Amino acid sequence: MIIGGSSSQDLAASVARELSEKLCYVETRKFPDGERYIRIDGEIEDEVTVIQSTGYPQDENLMELLFLISNLKDLGAKKVKVVVPYMGYARQEKRFNPGETISAKIVCDLIQAAGADEFITFNIHEECVLNFFDIPARNLSAMPSIAEYLDKKYFKKGDEKPIIIAPDKGAYGFAQEMSEIIGCDCTYLTKVRLGPDKVETRIVDVRCDSESENTVNVDSVKGMHAIIIDDIIATGGTIVNAINILKQYGASSIDVCCVHAILTNNGASRIYEAGANKIIGTNSLSSDTSRVSLAKAIADALR
Question: How far apart are CA 279 and CA 286, in angstroms?
């Protein structure tokens, strides 16, 4: 049995179709004072999977998730698997400054205390957050889903392959993962200090593989279709900078891909204005950029 929370109902329905599982309806509304009412409409099976992202509005979506988990256990579910495609509050996994709240740990504790028996998420900001759980917890990668979408939709047999660009070294692993699936080159941008008060962002020279003398360098982008890949895009500042650099080096066209397209403060408009053709996100969060479905990846993980 699959249950979709308010933030992930379409995704939950797609997962249910993939698995040929029953999709259980949830009635949810707000009281005049803002408190949430939730009713699960259907006979509860022994094993239930709840799918609910906890993006904006984070507090409401998190509270709804906790209500669903606890209610399912009260109604007789023996095992509740929880799929949170985008996990809010996952960026504060430690106390960076005195007195700060370790929000990631508190959220994990709440989900587990509500009755979750297993936890699944995608490309969590810091994988160490999953260590706060005592229940089985998995961090899946959405890169195969994104790569498959791009390969089918844009790079048919015989078409020239793109070059995959990570906007910084931290995202290079995503670029490598995607490039291996699509079968193309990848690299990342890095800041190079030219002097005491001058820093420049450049494309890093990267050897394509250990047995080849071919190297991805600044000339590799010229005339190429470039795809920028990252896990999370919030305000879009890093991506805008990357687009400007790639245009400077002669990229013929640029698309932007990510797992979690938060896109606050007119982030999408800024990225398009900088010169991106498309913003391609997954449906971990519902928006106009949610072009890649995670349903098959979730179904495979639940089988």
Answer: 13
